[in-house]
TrEMBL record:
Keyword Glycosyltransferase: no
Coiled coil regions, renumbered to chain: none
Lineage: Eukaryota, Viridiplantae, Streptophyta, Embryophyta, Tracheophyta
Organism: Urochloa decumbens
One GO CC term on file: membrane
Keyword annotations of the record: Membrane, Transmembrane, Transmembrane helix, Transport
Name this polypeptide is given: Major facilitator superfamily (MFS) profile domain-containing protein
UniProt cross-references to Gene3D superfamilies, sorted A to Z: MFS general substrate transporter like domains
Domain Major facilitator superfamily (MFS) profile positions: 40-483
Highest rank taxon of the organism: Eukaryota
Membrane topology: Multi-pass membrane protein
Length: 489
């Protein structure tokens, strides 16, 4: 008892250390070390990069793959079938993301990460060996179902470091994914059909000649196998407390604290149920914003890859898969330079959240110019398309980083696995719709180049831009409270 008959209440935020708990051990290490955990961040970056490479690596050669699988009856139908192959991964991930989040909250982030990387090694390789349209669909679906890394890795990035470094941790996840989403297609563009592009290195009788789309998948799987080794050094961040007596004391202390929180002090809700998270509007509004911008980005990349390699008679750019790979490789290097050299200064002076709206506005204005690039030729086309693609990916990386930080600051640590699982589920649903819808719209646009108030290609990019405009509008009240989000971050 304290003076005056008051019950002595433990200080808020004080945590009891549990021997043998990896989460407690990491917390102690973070207390004694105030620096940035460069090694852990590097492992996160590598693992996240390699797990993301397969997601969109197929887009530069998907047009040719569908053509060779002979599922499309006419050229204009290729985009229709390509859209469903692109969508399968995301639709499968829709069903598995919340279970993976629950798994990560119960058994740890590290096991979830390792299983996800192993699924990339197996099913991405099998996709490259696809001999039929349905084999391609099934292997992509299994890859999406078993690669449950996205939610846990975002939670992990905020837990492996001190609070002041969390923005950097999320930025690394976002930047590695952003880079992978352009490097992956670059690998696909350069390495698909190697017997045709590099006949001196690959013969038509070799496995890479008989399976022209196997080499990019094989290279990505080798990189994923290497990153699986890096997982050995990843520390576990989840707290495992098996001492029931100590936990009973902690619960009793929490009840005493709750009884003392009066006079306007907010009572924290420790219920980690999915139902409670769905009622957390700060989280759900951030998740919805994230989903809308992800829908836009995925539809854009699907459309860009199909449009860039399509014929000039359909107002495409008539580029090769290697040209598309070059464009995306330049974008990937540019995003990396931006994240390392420019973004830290942006965060220092404006914060990680404020650039969201300006980046969305600039992205919308940039995409308006895309249909007119079909009027350009040779050198000027390649210069402008590289600049436009680089800027588009920089804006996307800025928006995605802000959305990820908004989500992870809206919940407590013990809820982040499930919260990110919910986010990935909804995002995967949106991303699953995006390639299918973009493929259908692309096929429709090629069949309606004339006779409408606008050419089909302009309507195509206008529809994609409308998604980003909706996302921008939802960053304002009453849907989203930016000032409250800035205080939390």
């Amino acid at each position: 008892m304290a003076a005056g008959g008051e019950v002595a209440v433990p200080l808020l935020g004080t945590k009891r250390r549990h021997d043998g708990c990896p989460g407690c051990r990491l917390d102690e290490a973070n207390k004694t070390s105030t620096g940035i955990p460069y090694r852990n961040f590097f492992y996160i970056w590598i693992v996240c990069l390699t797990s993301t490479l397969p997601i969109q690596s197929l887009f530069p050669y998907l047009y040719f793959m569908i053509r060779d699988l002979k599922i499309a009856k006419q050229e204009q139908d290729i985009g229709f079938y390509a859209g469903f192959v692109g969508a399968t991964y995301f639709l499968a991930r829709t069903f598995s993301s919340v279970p993976w989040g629950i798994f990560a909250d119960k058994y740890g982030r590290k096991p979830c990460i390792v299983i996800s990387i192993l699924s990339v090694v197996v099913f991405n390789t099998l996709f490259g060996l696809s001999t039929s349209y349905w084999m391609a669909i099934v292997t992509r679906g299994l890859l999406g179902l078993l690669c449950g890394i996205l939610g846990p890795i975002k939670a992990y990035a905020t837990e492996v470091c001190r609070k002041e470094h969390q923005a950097l941790g999320i930025s690394l996840v976002t930047s590695s994914r952003a880079i992978a989403l352009v490097i992956g297609p670059a690998i696909g563009g350069f390495l698909a059909q190697p017997a045709e592009k590099y006949p001196n290195l690959f013969s038509k009788e070799s496995i890479f000649g008989r399976f022209p789309y196997f080499l990019p998948s094989f290279v990505i799987s080798i990189l994923a196998a290497g990153s699986c080794i890096a997982c050995i050094w990843l520390p576990e961040t989840l707290h495992f407390h098996d001492d029931e007596k100590v936990e009973a004391i902690d619960a009793l202390e929490a009840q005493v604290i709750d009884s003392k929180l009066e006079g306007g002090k907010a009572k924290e809700d420790s219920d980690t149920s999915t139902k409670n998270l769905l009622r957390n509007w700060q989280l759900m509004s951030a998740v919805i914003l994230y989903c809308i911008f992800c829908l836009h980005d995925t539809a854009y990349l699907e459309t860009f890859s199909l449009w860039a390699v399509s014929s000039r008679k359909f107002r495409g750019l008539s580029l090769t898969s290697q040209d598309v790979g070059t464009v995306l490789a330049v974008s990937g290097v540019g995003v990396l330079v931006y994240q390392l050299a420019v973004y830290p200064f942006l965060v220092k002076y404006f914060g990680a959240i404020r650039p969201l709206r300006p980046a969305a506005v600039l992205s919308i204005l940039l995409l308006i110019t895309y249909p007119f690039m079909a009027n350009l030729q040779e050198t000027e086309l390649k210069i402008l398309i590289n600049i436009a693609s680089l800027l588009k990916n920089v804006f996307s990386a800025t928006i995605t980083t802000a959305c990820n930080i908004l989500q992870n600051t809206a919940v407590a640590q013990e809820q982040r696995g499930v919260a990110n699982g919910i986010s990935v589920t909804l995002m995967s649903l949106f991303k699953g719709v995006a390639p299918a819808a973009a493929g259908i719209l692309f096929s429709w646009a090629q069949k309606h180049m004339t006779g409408l108030f606008l050419p089909g290609d302009q309507i195509l990019f206008l529809m994609i831009n409308m998604v980003s405009i909706i996302g921008l509008l939802l960053t304002f009240k009453p849907f989203f409270n930016m000032s409250s989000a800035l205080r939390r971050s």
